[in-house]
Amino acid sequence: MSAGARPTLRDVATQAGVSPAIASRVLNADPTVRVREETRERIQGVAKDMGYVPHSVARSLRGARTGAIGLVMHGLDSPINVDVLAGAQAACARAGYVTLLADAEQLAGDHSQLSAFLARGRLDGVILHSGYGEEDRLLEAITSSVPAVLVNSEDGRPVPTVRVDDAAAARLATEHLIELGHREIAYIAGPEGSQTSDRREAGYRDTLARHDLGGAVDVVHAGWSAGAGTTAVHELLRRPTLPTGLVVANAVAASGVLSAFRDAGLAVPGQVSVITIHDSWFLQHLSVALTAVRLPLQVLGATAADLLIDTIEGRSPVRDVAITEPAPELVLRRSTGPTSRR
Amino acid sequence: MSAGARPTLRDVATQAGVSPAIASRVLNADPTVRVREETRERIQGVAKDMGYVPHSVARSLRGARTGAIGLVMHGLDSPINVDVLAGAQAACARAGYVTLLADAEQLAGDHSQLSAFLARGRLDGVILHSGYGEEDRLLEAITSSVPAVLVNSEDGRPVPTVRVDDAAAARLATEHLIELGHREIAYIAGPEGSQTSDRREAGYRDTLARHDLGGAVDVVHAGWSAGAGTTAVHELLRRPTLPTGLVVANAVAASGVLSAFRDAGLAVPGQVSVITIHDSWFLQHLSVALTAVRLPLQVLGATAADLLIDTIEGRSPVRDVAITEPAPELVLRRSTGPTSRR
DNA sequence: TTGTAGGCGTTATCAC
DNA sequence: GTGATAACGCCTACAA
């Protein structure tokens, strides 16, 4: 063993005067092995002295596991998505897994990146953050090589699914506006095809219907970005009359909504009330501190990780999980108030 | 080979009627091998038909490389840091590396997480996002096992270093306020011990000195969070007089600064001008659209990745890189204006 | 032009 | 109690 090279198990064994087999079992605390206390201590001492570190690659070649989980995310420019990432990453780390991070768009767009990521033996499983684009092709490539969990998708998919209670969050937001006296409430949606946005829209429609306001349903398609929120407002401003309340599907888009109203000289909540879904640090610093429904996004990521790890380790997991604990929670700030009209 | 199992190189070779050696060389496009065109096509055809995917673990056990780079980050709750992450991740992916993501605090606080991450054979190198805490212990553990690059640190470290031109950014910010007529300009610093903040502070001091304002140096220690910015303002408000201009070390902290002024009923920029360093999507949506100096953070991450990859692949890299291209750039919004006082 | 064999570092099986 | 040995899948001298 030369100076720079790390010692192998064989080096340790030789140095301790035992066979590699014994050294391996002692260092892995194999409960079925019976060795003299003295031998055990000698081996452990030598390993420590030589700075022995097990070779994870050799280990996973022998066994079948790698101790690594892939996180395929998108939209990391939004803090909302980063929350999910952070929750998943932390849960994996707690369970002893390292995490490989990839960007869904990059992976879908570059075949060689995808195969590097899914190379055999690299990953024990993948958490796929469900967006609204290339998802299906990606999902197929992934599931054909390792177990996967889908975050934020509808259930009834070929793989287990985890999501927060988007409908309940939207209901809570809509109820809040109704309680304040609003009757003309629009929903500013996410991008077309987003299941997350669709579930929120369903909650919004539900709530209007339950209050006999089903005829007032008013959905404006926008997107997840601040720019999309701004565009949506410009669209509203072209109408003869404005809704008095807005449920915005996402906090980043809501930022753009608020700025657009500020630039148009409309008072929030004086002329329009705005509430959004997702809470984040920046909401209280916007042009008007933004009222929101808090959703447990870190828990979402962590639950996906736990579910995947259960699958990997052979504990049979539930299939589709809708997270209800902690429940969506109203975070009151200054962007909603009683309606002036009617 | 059973139904579920993926085919191995040997399976492909057998099926194609050749030896594993030939199959390996053909599939890896070994330029020194000379095979009949027909044989080559047969091998490639069989590999494709069987869905052969090389086993990355076996490959890296044989060779020494794993094709994986570790990203040790901190503060992913701030979009500023996420920008660096995204730049590094994308650059690694472009170069054919997968990325392992870990959180610096978690790694420093949990020994078993650290050894799982640094397990032999797992990583070809590590990008360490330099913070202000556990960095040194972490750095030692990392560098003793793989090549590393430090992002955002001073140079003169035992490993190569990459950073943006923090001093120039602070100079630009300070100059801007001076040009607007401000003479009492405070610097709202990051946390104690942050080298990034120190470099910005140096730029600020420089600029004051160059304008014969050296006596007006006024540094308030805060931190990177919005809360820290708010606290710093509260501290300022206890003074008999306020500075007329503020250079805030970081855009997240600056959010808290603006909110604190709003809550205190002070007009920005009427009574105080505020400029910050780092641009991000949320700045234009704050209570006052925030003027900032844009710094190329994605480029920072990407440069760190490129530098590390050069090291790994044996191209001798420069040691310490200060990124000057693109240069820091002033992004004018509404939070700075001529001073009313003096 | 193609094949054989050895070994990367581990761990599981079986024998002593 | 402990040790030899084989195998995981791949790559690459060297041989034919």
**Helix percentage of chain A:** 40-55%
Strand arrangement, largest sheet of chain A? 2-1-3-4-5-11
**Name of the level-1 CATH class of the largest domain in chain A:** Alpha Beta
Give the oligomeric state of the chains in this entry, treating copies of one chain as homo and distinct chains as hetero.
homodimer
CATH architectural grouping of the largest domain in chain A: 3-Layer(aba) Sandwich
Layout of helices and strands:
2 copies of one chain form a homodimer.
Chain A: H1 9-16, H2 20-27, H3 37-50, H4 56-62, E1 68-73, H5 79-94, E2 98-103, H6 104-109, H7 111-118, E3 125-129, H8 135-143, E4 148-151, E5 161-164, H9 166-179, E6 185-189, H10 195-210, E7 219-221, H11 226-237, E8 245-248, H12 251-264, E9 273-277, E10 291-294, H13 297-312, E11 320-323, E12 329-331
Parallel strand pairs in A: 1-2, 1-3, 3-4, 4-5, 5-11, 6-7, 6-8, 8-9, 9-10
Antiparallel strand pairs in A: 10-12
Helix pairs in contact in A: 1-2, 1-3, 5-13, 9-10, 11-12
Chain A binds a DNA duplex (16 and 16 nucleotides) through α2 and α4.
